Amino acid sequence: MSTSTSVSGKGLLLKADSIAATFRNEVEKTLANCSHAPKLVGILSTSSSPSRTYAEFTRKQCESLGFKFVLKETGAALPNEGLGEGEGVEEAIMEANEDDSVDGVMVYFPIFGPQQDHYLQQLVSPYKDVEGLHVKFHYNLYHNIRFISPSSLSIPTASATGSTGDEAENDIPPPGMVKSILPCTPLAIVKCLEYAGVYNKILPYGDRAYGKTVVVVNRSEVVGRPLAALLSNDGARVFSVDIDSIQEYTKRPSDSDSSRKYHPRHIVRPPPEAYNTLEACLAVADVVVSAVPNATYKIPTAWLKDGCVCVNVAAEKNFEKDVRDKASLYIPAVGKVTILMLLRNLLRLQQYKNVSPSSTAGSPAQ
């Protein structure tokens, strides 16, 4: 187990290796039962060094586990071709959508910026979206729809067809249904918290984070906001902190609204007045997750609750060096778990074809 404690009284340092090993074994066993190795196409269309590094990391992980990986380079990723940033990326996505030999597509973002990149995310067929960024998967995430029929992805508009899982005792889909795809990084963070014991397995499935207060710093559409929804849909009280506001995510009614029925999915409201600052939220947080892409941003250790669990998601360290003086457990990175969530999604997308082959082959983005 990749953990360490250096000084008596310091919290545990939990590296991602030991968490990733659990899912690596799962992926290897699932892959061994596949009729053929799934094929993932990565599309790199920028000159960004971090994007190329991530593409090469993906290649190494795929090859080490026996997956097929093809890197499609276009635009500024081809420096000698004189092409601009993102040039040709739409065509590359559409070609991969139409190629029946391709099981999954991932595009290395950012490319143009949030708005145009969002369009590109919707261009990827939901049947091949390993990152879970398509609106159909986001709809399921935010409405707490956990199990779906693959054929529902062909419906032109989002619908509530599916199951929340409230009636299930575990995470096994009902007959004829499969798990919906979730965004890789938020899912990786949830898996890290499960491994760390934040989730209570004695509680009913779908409510195992009940009783925990979580602070998520940065409300991005890729990590922070979907993570807040996932955790609150599992029963946690979540304070989502962004540069200009704080929001409270919860699946339960407030004390002042006791007549309101239990919510099967999260709701978002302004926080109580007592929790309108980051410092106040951190003082009660059992878990703190930070994903701020800024090397100078640091969460003050003095503001943390004694014994909390801290998770750093950003490439830069968002916590001060003495974070373990307050935190009982500190996870400095989740990247190795994220890539395995991506490969689990790839296997799941191949399963979609097996469950409903006529509806998935060559399916365009909806």
First-residue to last-residue Cα separation: 43 Å
Number of helices: 10
Give the SSE string.
Answer: EEHEHEHEHHEEHEHEEEHEEEHH
**Mind describing the biggest β-sheet?**
9 strands, mixed
Beta-strand content bin: 5-15%
Class inferred from helices and paired strands: alpha/beta
As laid out across the biggest beta sheet, the strand order is 1-2-14-13-12-8-9-10-11
Number of strands: 14
Low-confidence stretches: 357-366
Radius of gyration: 21 Å
Shape: globular
- The percent of residues in helical segments reads 25-40%
- The overall pLDDT, averaged over residues, is 89
Question: What's the topology here?
Answer:
Layout: E1 3-4, E2 12-14, H1 16-32, E3 39-44, H2 49-65, E4 68-73, H3 89-98, E5 104-107, H4 114-123, H5 135-142, E6 147-148, E7 178-179, H6 184-195, E8 213-217, H7 224-233, E9 237-241, E10 246-250, E11 267-269, H8 278-282, E12 287-290, E13 309-312, E14 329-331, H9 335-355, H10 357-360
Parallel strand pairs: 2-14, 3-4, 3-5, 8-9, 8-12, 12-13, 13-14
Antiparallel strand pairs: 1-2, 6-7, 9-10, 10-11
Helix pairs in contact: 1-9, 6-7, 6-9
Can you walk me through this structure?
This protein is of the alpha/beta class. The chain has ten helices and 14 strands. α7 (224-233) links the parallel β8 (213-217) and β9 (237-241). α1 packs parallel to α9 (335-355) and α6 crosses α7 (224-233). The model is unreliable at 357-366 (pLDDT under 50).
